[in-house]
Specification:
The protein is mainly β and 208 residues long. The protein contains two helices and 16 strands.
C-alpha cells in the first residue's frame, strides 16, 4: 500500500517535479515540426539529497527496500508548493473537508466546495483526489486564481493535465501536500556514504 513515508524521509537539496508529456516530434521538409501524443502526461520527480546523515541514508534505503525498489509505489508531492501559495502552512484551510463540486464539460476544469469563505487558490497550486479503482490524480491549477464564495464554493477553473476518466463529483480533495502515486525509475537510485555524510539521487514516475 502506497504511503508518504519515503517522501517524508527525503531531505531534498535540489530536484525537479514536472509533467512528462510522452510526445513524439518529427520535422517536415517545409520546416514544420509535427507533435504527436503517445500517452497521457505523467508527473515525474528527480531528487538529490546531498546532506544526509548516515542514519538518514539508512532510513531511506530501508524504505526503498520496503516498497521493493521499483516494484512498489509511494506518494510524492512537489516540495516547491506543498501547500497553496496564499496559505503556505495550511492554517487557513484547517480541517476543511474539500470536495469536487462540479466537473467542466471541457474535461480540463472543475470547481471545489467545502473551502473556507473567501479562500484563494492560485496558479501553480496543486490538488489531488482518488478516482476509479483507488487511483490517484494530481493536478496543478492553471487559472490565475479561484476564490471560494461565502458558501465555500469556487467557480470552475482549469487544471493541468486534463482530467482523467473516472473523476467524479464529491470526491475528497487534498490541498495540503497533494500527492501523486509514484514508482522509482529502475536503476535510478544511487546512495552513497562518505565519512559521516550521506547522499542519494533518484528519479520517479507517476503510476496511473
Amino acid at each position: 500500500m502506497a504511503n508518504t513515508d519515503l517522501m517524508a524521509a527525503l531531505v531534498i537539496t535540489s530536484g525537479k517535479f514536472a509533467l512528462s508529456y510522452g510526445q513524439e516530434t518529427s520535422g517536415q521538409a517545409d520546416g514544420t515540426i509535427r507533435v504527436a501524443d503517445l500517452r497521457s502526461p505523467l508527473w515525474t520527480m528527480e531528487a538529490q539529497c546531498s546532506t544526509l546523515t548516515l542514519d538518514q541514508l539508512l532510513d531511506i534505503e530501508t524504505l526503498i527496500d520496503q516498497v521493493g525498489g521499483s516494484r512498489g509505489s509511494f506518494y510524492a508531492w512537489d516540495r516547491m508548493r506543498p501547500y497553496p501559495k496564499l496559505d503556505p502552512d495550511g492554517v487557513l484551510l484547517g480541517a476543511s473537508a474539500v470536495k469536487i463540486h462540479s466537473l467542466g464539460a471541457d474535461g480540463r476544469s472543475l470547481s471545489l466546495k467545502g473551502l473556507p469563505a473567501g479562500y484563494v487558490l492560485s496558479r501553480g497550486d496543486y490538488l489531488s483526489f482518488d478516482f476509479g479503482s483507488a487511483r490517484r490524480a494530481l493536478h496543478r491549477i492553471a487559472a490565475a486564481s479561484a476564490v471560494a464564495n461565502g458558501s465555500g464554493v469556487t467557480p470552475e477553473f482549469e487544471v493541468v493535465p486534463n482530467l482523467r476518466a473516472g473523476a467524479a463529483t464529491n470526491a475528497d480533495v487534498a490541498l495540503k501536500r497533494p500527492a501523486a502515486e509514484m514508482r522509482l525509475v529502475p536503476g535510478s537510485f544511487d546512495g552513497n556514504g562518505d565519512g559521516v555524510i550521506g547522499s542519494i539521487s533518484l528519479q520517479a514516475v507517476q503510476v496511473v
